[in-house]
Amino acid sequence: MRLSVVLLSLALTTTACTVREPGPPDPGGRRIAVIAGPLADPFFAALKSGAEQAAADLRVQMDYLAPAATAEFGAELVRLLGNAVANGADGIALGDYFPEQQDPGIRAAVAAGRTVVLINSGESSWQAVGATGYVGQDEQRTGTLAGQRLAEAGARRVLCVNHVPGSPATTQRCAGLGTALRAAGGAVTELPLASAEATNPTATQQAISGALTADPALDGVFTLGSSFAEQALRAIGPERRVRVATTDLSTGVLESVRDGRILFAVDQQPYLQGYYGVLIAVQRLAHGLRPNAPVRTGPLVVDQANAAEVLAHNRDRGIRGAK
User: Fold this and answer.
1) For a disulfide at 297, which of 30, 113, 254, 272, Cβ 3.0-4.6 Å?
2) Looking at the structure, do residues 274 and 233 belong to the same domain, yes or no?
3) Ranges for the Periplasmic binding protein domain (predicted)?
4) Are 203 and 197 in contact (CB under 8 A)?
């Protein structure tokens, strides 16, 4: 009930902001920087689309900043935050993917008078760093939900493919997965991917294949991003029965869910994360308003029962992260 009230309030606020005369951003108005992942990933393309729509609705300037080199992801995020502050952004919406590296800069931005909203990653740190709010999914709950669904499908030994080892968000997903599977008498093996593997589809497929070969008892794979689910399907091959599930959406994943090759995908609605991140920052700057709890955008489960409906929304490219 509390979540419904929060989301309804945000929706009403959004509606109130969009009844103004449409027009270009006011050059002397608010500037919001959004710092998240590379746009080659359809997940972050959807997040950017949401931020762009919020900026258009609220008539503010929005700059999307993303690391150019995933191998130095944490360091790049720190640099981009420093640039956003130096370039005069009034508000900053960003993912706190590596707290040990990013939190000092986030605290410094808040101390410098910037309004900061954490999006996509940072539920465990948003209050400690002085952020105005957090928008995203409950990562532990996401993993637990996935574990329960996999156990119901008969999986007992599941490989959790972690493409961002060290990130609280992915760590919590694998942990929640393990909690649910252990409750069902199963177990989880985590496969951490080095950045060189995570950004190379062939290397990802080989890593998953190697883990499956090393442990013939594995009967499930849970990936933490849509592209990794597609590589998992290729790694398994037709001769072995391994149940596959994932977080996040792509057209390939949705088609595989629809056709029964992937059990389900957990959607955290990145479009809403981008939209609400900008909205909350602007409302804080303009009126001193702030949410008093995390704003949840997930987890939502897409399975064979509703995958076709979500695929139909592909005509609205960039909304569900499906590409």
Assistant:
1) 272
2) no
3) 32-286
4) yes
Which tokens belong to 212? 């499956």
DSSP for 120-172 reads SS-TTTTTTTT-SEEEEE-HHHHHHHHHHHHHHTT--EEEEEESSTT-HHHHH
Residue range of the domain that includes 253: 139-267
Both tokens assigned to 168:
């609280």
Contact partners, residue 16, CB within 8 Å, separation at least 6: none
Crossing angle of the two packed helices 270-287 and 42-58, in degrees rounded to 10: 30
What pTM did the predictor assign?
Answer: 0.86
Mean pLDDT is lowest, of 94-98, 196-200, 226-230, 271-275, for 196-200
What phi and psi values does residue 79 have, to the nearest 5 degrees?
A: -65, -45
Is the bond preceding residue 291 a cis peptide, omega within 30 degrees? no
**Domain end residue (candidates: 246, 267, 288):** 267
Cβ atoms of 191 and 207 within 8 Å: the answer is: yes
CATH number at residue 115: 3.40.50.2300
Q: Please check whether residue 316 lies inside any domain of the structure.
A: no
DSSP helix/strand/coil, 292: coil
- Tell the residue number behind the tokens 């062939």, with chain if given: 202
